[in-house]
Amino acid sequence: HAKASGRNNYQYFSDNMRSEALTRSTLENDLHHALPNHEFIVYYQPLIDLQTTPNQIIGFEALLRWNHPRKGLISPDDFIPIAEETGMIVAIGEWVLKSACKQFKIWRDQDQPQLKKICVNLSARQFLQNDLVHSIRQCLDSTGLDARFLEIEITETVMMQHMSAVIRILQQLMQMGITVSLDDFGTGYSSLTYLKKFPINSIKIDRSFVRDILNDPDDKVIVHSIISIARHMRLDIIAEGIENKEQATYLMQAGCRFGQGFLYSKPLPADGLIDLFPMFD
Ligand code: C2E
Ligand code: MG
Ligand code: MG
Ligand code: MG
């Protein structure tokens, strides 16, 4: 009996592996058609000023979604890694940037002066293309969006690779008036050296530290330390993944100025957001 079930297990796993490989190669194959077939959508999640009452929306983070013709909506964690490995992220990233800038310009033009920034995530791979600065400048020119409204988000993983090249690029972007934030802070191969060496304007506290902030003493210490460092370095600070009022109050009282999370809004397509303007209660 043991033998039989062992064989079944073996078959089970090998079938499973085959179907997994199939999924991955199907996804990779389908991803090639996603851009020309208009299957991508940019969702936007509001960025909130925690220190104002009522809390104002000061901008949005652009978050990519793939509306797959058979599988439906696919989350970025499931396809961005494939897009990075294959290099498709460069073309996809340009499309996201352009869509987000275009949309933010529309919102700004609708007399929404409290909207101060549109945040767009960039992958390491995009820093390796030799014309990133040029392509961002072209995007701003063609959409007519003022550079000071654009914020790019990078992770510690991006910083680790090709340090000096990345620093050079960030400096060029900052000279244009673009701001830079360090995303998922504390989750990567964190080194405080990055804060010192890299030109950045703000830090995003990863949501893994926010989740248990009310109960976990370690998370409290970590978050207070990040906020203190940010304040001394004159960096903006934004907390990710705020899901309830208690977390928001705690973070606000700890000195965190900005936040985003399901408490305020999930990421939504552009036309679903207009109702939320100009602020939350
Ligand atoms: P991220 O940049 O750290 O984005 C924040 C993620 O947290 C988003 O996941 C968002 O939906 C989620 N989130 C926001 N508030 C809450 C909350 O209160 N609770 C919980 N549980 N989650 C919350 P999403 O949209 O699935 O994106 C995942 C990651 O994919 C992003 O993490 C980012 O690293 C990457 N990504 C998304 N769009 C792009 C893109 O256009 N380009 C690149 N290179 N990466 C992208
Ligand atoms: Mg981000
Ligand atoms: Mg993040
Ligand atoms: Mg992330």
Automatic annotation (TrEMBL):
A GO BP annotation: regulation of DNA-templated transcription
Record keywords, A-Z: c-di-GMP, Coiled coil
MF annotations from Gene Ontology: cyclic-guanylate-specific phosphodiesterase activity
UniProt keyword annotation of Ribonucleoprotein present: no
Domain EAL per the UniProt entry, residue ranges: 24-281
Protein name: cyclic-guanylate-specific phosphodiesterase
Location of this fragment in the whole protein: 472 to 752 of 752
